[in-house]
Amino acid sequence: MFKILKKRELTPVTKLFVVSAPMVARKAQPGQFVIIRVVPNGERIPLTVADADPEAGTVTIVIQEVGKTSRLAGAMDEGDEMLDFVGPLGRPAPLTGKGPVVLVGGGFGVAPIYPIAKALRAKGVKVISIIGARTEDLLILSEEMASVSDELLVATDDGSRGHHGFVTDVLKQLIDSGREIEQVIAIGPMVMMRAVGRVTEPYKLKTLVSVDPIMVDGTGMCGACRLTVGGEVKFACVDGPIFDAHEVDFDEAVRRGKIYAAEQRLAVEKMEKEQCGGKCACGCGGGR
Amino acid sequence: MAENETKPPRKPVKRPRAGMPSQDAAARRRNFNEVALGYPEDVAVAEAERCLACKNAACREGCPVEVKIPEFVAKVRERDFRAAYDLLKDTNSLPAICGRVCPQETQCEEKCLLGKKGEPVAIGRLERFVADWAMAQGKDEPPKVQPNGKKVAVVGSGPAGLTCAGDLAKKGYKVTVFEALHAPGGVLVYGIPEFRLPKRIVAQEIQNLEQLGVEVVCDVVVGRTITVDELFEEGYDAVFLGTGAGLPTFMNIPGETLNGVYSANEFLTRTNLMKAYLFPEWDTPTKVGKRVAVIGAGNVAMDSVRCALRLGAEEAMIVYRRSEAEMPARHEEVEHAKEEGVIFHTLTAPVRILGDDEGWVKGMECIRMELGEPDASGRRRPVPVKGSEFILDVDTVVMALGTTPNPLVSQTTPGLDVDKHGCLVVRDENGLTTRELVWAAGDAVTGAATVILAMGGGKKAAAAIDEVLRGKE
Ligand SMILES: Cc1cc2nc3c(=O)[nH]c(=O)nc-3n(C[C@H](O)[C@H](O)[C@H](O)COP(=O)(O)OP(=O)(O)OC[C@H]3O[C@@H](n4cnc5c(N)ncnc54)[C@H](O)[C@@H]3O)c2cc1C
Ligand SMILES: Cc1cc2nc3c(=O)[nH]c(=O)nc-3n(C[C@H](O)[C@H](O)[C@H](O)COP(=O)(O)OP(=O)(O)OC[C@H]3O[C@@H](n4cnc5c(N)ncnc54)[C@H](O)[C@@H]3O)c2cc1C
Ligand code: SF4
Ligand code: SF4
Ligand code: FES
Asked: What is the pTM of this model?
């Protein structure tokens, strides 16, 4: 069992957890992920390592609530225990090169970007970070990101903070301004990563993304996570999850991400009914 | 042991082999309850009476762990089931499992003298009967063992790892089993379905091990969470690798990443380990369409196709490039599948999978095959019949084409060699790998094989580990 030592609500639907997992903490590198399970009948869901402290034996994860399992996890509290917390899985982010590196984080993707920024800075690499969200209230970890970036740029879809528009606009401006950029690493929703790839491709600017297909075991056993990268089939959990953005077949990845859409909806509806007996109309998803 | 006692001679009784009571095919094709119900006591005794009690029991040679077959069968005949169980456990630590899943027709029962002219003794069914009887009596009494102060790490909790762990624990070793998944059992829990091997049986075997003092730690992926070298640093005196052959194979034909194409591993893991057949009471879904094609004809394919039926497929079919005679699955599984209404397309091979506009499977182009000259395996090689392509109307495809060992451990353990198939290289018949103090057995060494072979390998390795570690005193 893996005890939650600290919880922070980053937004109403995004929770940060510091979890006691000494074996994972000792090994976790930026770019790797864990798989958790929170209830006995529950699903296994992958989450990126957002920080790890080998001395304290803790691993930080950030969960955005989207479906049943992430909501169940998000509703857990300090002192609660996760049933399973396995990792670190996947290959670490390749932190080679001299920089400067532009890091792009969208939505919950800012969390996995953070340890990469931290590691790059520790190596003396110049880090320019662009983070974004729909609106200011949904923007996460901006102070932490500021502390590990040489420069931090912010974009919100509604203009409530920073640039009014997408992170990709900011990225394009940055490239067009002629700034020296060695490579770009982008993590966020699949559509955002696809868009980043489309921005950098004409400039032949090396771009890495962390793709998040549906997974089961996370060790190469099931093939659920397969993606087409550079015309070849890869298993994201062992060959990735970080790949060259210009080679990933995002259309296929997005389509495969929807395989269980109907079942996922059913699971959430059932949970909401159970949690508030179907009487509540507050729209909170029950529980709170 | 009462083995050498002289018993009054008795005559074997000539009668047909006792059939296995089973759930009715029409009902069972829609539920996950066990298909074969097991012999009632009287039937077991009657079946045991058929055994000739051969002096040079050929049946034993057919069993990879040389179960004392005539002896245990004689005890069944005498209704001394406790003694029968003890005899079984002497060489087979998982009889309730082997009695259910061993391919008896190519092992013990193939060699049975009675089988030369008529039907062999139903050795597997008797084994299952005895093991189930013992389980019904409650837990095994754990033997008292004196700890010897040495620690062994067992990686993987399939039959190879469980057997090795049990044998070492009985000798006084402190054994820790590390398992990557959240539940122990290996293929016995994630692959073989409930209707063929109820999970409570595997759970009870694991409880028995824990009673022996074996510690089972799940959620540890050796090679990622901890390496083999780090295990030695942590003070383990030896490491046993029973990591199985878990990597799926795809055909590399067009359309394999369409929505609705599964590896058998994914399909079975969702169904069995994650209990997708109980969705939404259990959270993990699976998607079974109306018409499901499973490619392959081994045990994995039969399990997949029968799961598909039970998950609600209107039509579930096997697509196999050779003929029925070459099917590698256990005979009983093929029979059961047929009874349940599975359709067999033999001498048929997929060419590509077709998708609709949204990227879902909507059909599979296949080609007819005919058998040509024998190949390296001695089986006649299937060759495509020119111009015989046709489209099979399916919406779900499951690839059950065999598996290979996972490279996570070998890639992260310097000096641990693998062959060109990715199987761990062993230096002797006890499973010593190319690394000192590291042994291996089961599918990780042999490639996908059988439960009993994995157990036999785990057993030999345990004996070898004991010998070497005792020598190091
Ligand atoms: C390597 C990897 C790292 C990830 N890191 C994080 C992270 O740090 N923080 C975080 O909040 N989320 C992360 N995710 C996504 C997270 O795993 C999913 O949000 C989660 O599985 C959804 O489960 P659910 O039951 O709550 O929702 P579901 O009801 O199962 O799904 C809701 C929505 O999420 C999509 N989805 C389902 N499964 C996945 C999946 N495995 N990956 C992506 N989308 C999925 C569905 O298409 C659907 O639109 C990561 C995914 C991967 C593969
Ligand atoms: C669907 C199916 C049906 C079958 N039917 C039959 C049958 O009817 N009869 C029969 O005799 N045989 C059958 N087999 C074959 C049989 O199950 C296997 O030969 C046997 O289970 C092999 O045992 P093992 O201990 O070597 O490996 P496995 O049972 O594969 O166990 C290996 C374990 O190691 C774990 N592991 C792997 N890598 C790591 C790591 N790095 N760190 C930690 N843990 C790790 C895995 O998660 C797994 O739990 C079937 C196989 C399948 C897939
Ligand atoms: S273990 Fe398997 S092969 Fe051996 S006697 Fe039992 S059923 Fe037969
Ligand atoms: S070969 Fe057949 S008849 Fe002879 S002892 Fe074995 S099971 Fe009995
Ligand atoms: S998640 Fe199963 S192979 Fe990647």
From this structure: 0.92
